[in-house]
Amino acid sequence: MLIPQWVANSDASDAQGERDTSLVDAYSGAVIGALERVSPAVAFIDVVHGAAPKSQRRTRGSGSGFLFTPDGYLLTNSHVVQGAQEITVRLNDDTGFGADLVGNDPDSDLAVLRIGSPTALPYVAFGDSAKLRVGQVAIAIGNPLGYSKTVTTGVVSALGRTLRATPGRLMHDVIQTDAALNPGNSGGPLVDSKGLVIGVNTAMIPQAQSICFATGIDTAKWVIAQLFAHGRVRRAYIGVSGATVPIATRVVRHFGLSSNTAVHVLELVAGSPAALAGVEAGDRMIAIDGLSIDGINGLQRLLDAGWIGREGELQLLRRSTLIRVKIRPIEMPAHGR
Questions:
Q1: Are the C-beta atoms of 157 and 87 separated by less than 8 Å?
Q2: Are 91 and 149 in contact (CB under 8 A)?
């Protein structure tokens, strides 16, 4: 028996439609599941600033944040709470709390707050931003333009971006996403399809179509540890701006390197420790005192307070030559570049 072509085409179309519906449902299920896990820990942050110069009126601002411990510690953006006289946090269930500023790091645009609660609070789980791949699902949760409990979805558009923080210091290894952000999303979580936080929503380009940025959660983990330990982030400073780049396999094998990536030096600050040590633009930094420098994020983690004033041996690839120079990092100046 011959089946009319239009019947065959119809059956094929129905099967394709069922597959498409199944894919859409799987995507929707992943987003809904992530939202259900994370949204109870997402907060609306209301800030009252002091009176502006030559004015008796105080100003207000708002943003987003999220609880990362059951005893009330929240992560948000520095620019959300900078200069705040009063901070109020409202959770997803509309419970309100006054908040204290635990620590603030404008150079990474991150801040930690604390609220008091007699009971344990919902909190997020951190993911691993070093393992992100371009194209994977990204979900932004926050309070854009005052519209609380808003979720937008997209993908990780690019990795390793660089942004300039308000004080002027470059923030490295920033995540680019097309999950739409608007004023008020700042400080909210960027999460993956499992509901793990992979970044802190930070900025967007107003004139563009969904070019948005988040600080990687690995950077945030380091900043949190510093704020808990010192009340501020103490950084050693060598005075370079750079980018993470791959090293050819043959070069890795020839010199017996422990990593196939390094930091490519783009610029040096005049009179900085790196400039005084003889580092040049175009060099690739591969290790300091035998500790591998596998990228910008790794370099920033290595240059902690323990390196301030301590001399070390910096290994560089300059064209095809491995060289070693002595370098003595200093403490990063306030809001240093």
A1: no
A2: no
With a cut of 60, say whether residue 7 has pLDDT above it. no
Strands 284-288 and 291-292, bridge-based pairing? antiparallel
Q: Which two tokens stand for residue 85?
A: 């006289």
User: Average per-residue pLDDT in the chain?
Assistant: 87
Q: Which residues of 300-334 are buried (b: 16+ CB within 10 A; e: fewer)?
A: bebbbeebbeeebebbbbeeeebeebebebbebee
264 belongs to the catalytic site: no
> Is residue 20 flagged as an active site residue?
no
Cα 329 to Cα 316: distance, rounded to the nearest angstrom: 16
- From the list 105, 109, 173, 283, the catalytic residue is 109
Q: What tokens does 138 get?
A: 């990204």
For residue 188, give the nearest of 166, 203, 172 by alpha carbon: 203
Instruction: Write the pLDDT tens digit of every residue in 72-100.
Output: 999 999 999 988 889 999 998 888 999 99
Q: Which domains can be identified in the chain, with CATH numbers?
A: 41-115 (2.40.10.10), 125-230 (2.40.10.10), 236-331 (2.30.42.10)
260-286: b or e for each residue (b if 16 or more CB lie within 10 Å)? ebbbbbeebeeebbbebbebeeebbbb
**Active-site residue, selected from the candidate residues 79, 105, 129, 192:** 79
Q: Are 307 and 301 in contact (CB under 8 A)?
A: no
Q: How far apart are CA 337 and CA 328, in angstroms?
A: 17
79 a catalytic residue: yes
Give the pair of three-digit tokens for residue 288: 């300091």
pLDDT tens string 166-214:
766 667 779 999 998 888 889 999 999 999 999 999 988 777 678 899 9
Tokens matching residue 283: 């060099």
Pseudo-torsion of CA 104, 106, 110, 113, nearest 10°? 20
Q: Which of 173, 186, 192, 264 is catalytic?
A: 186
Backbone angles phi, psi at 168, to 5 degrees: 115, -15
108: Cα within 13 Å, side-chain hemisphere: 30
